[in-house]
Amino acid sequence: MNNSILLRSAFLFLLGIFFSVQLASAQDQQEKKVIQLSGIILNADSTDAVAGVNVYVPKKGRGTSSGRFGYFSMPVLEGDSVVFSFIGLKRQTFKVPENVDKDRISLILTMEIDEIALAEIEVMPYPTEEEFKQAVIALNVVDPMSISRANMSPEMLLRWAESMPASGEENFRYFQQGQTLQNQDLYGPRPLRLLDPFAWGQFIRSIKRGDLKSK
What we know:
By secondary structure, this protein is α+β, with helices and mostly antiparallel strands. The protein has helices spanning 2-31, 129-137, 144-151, 154-163, 168-186, 197-209, 211-214, and strands at residues 34-43, 54-57, 62-65, 71-77, 81-86, 89-95, 104-111. It is elongated and about 125 Å long. Pfam families: CarbopepD_reg_2 (PF13715). Residues 1-26 form the signal peptide. Keywords: Signal.
């Protein structure tokens, strides 16, 4: 019986403290003035806007983020600590002043790069230096020049050339030829080179010059 009375008394005591804290916090927030905090966030050189910066009041559940041009705007209370954080940039905190005459505050905030210097790390897959040396000696190293000579052989180059797609210049040339043939078809049938006297004249002159023999 005594234990139940003690537990009930302790529960009522803690419940009274909880409601007292909540009431004091609510009264404190009602007394504080609401201020519209706005501004633009720039990089360290003030040349580019920083988008996506987290702007929030810790433990208050209020926050926003900067837009495409680095602009942000959010309601805050007098005395709030507003945190600005972004990956790769140094975190900054702005303290909203007390007893502000106006209901608006404008900021131009610059954020610097957060440079983290790490100590040199040596990564080795072998526990000891001796085992590493033994592994290097046991390697079966292939001469790189032999691989290069095999890749540069005429047979290999011909195989690669046959499997390669047409270049941009070749595609453009084929396209131009197709356009020319389409334009010729608009004005009549295509000429037959076997009946062209000029072509026969060029062919006879090439025979006299011995062009076919040289080939």
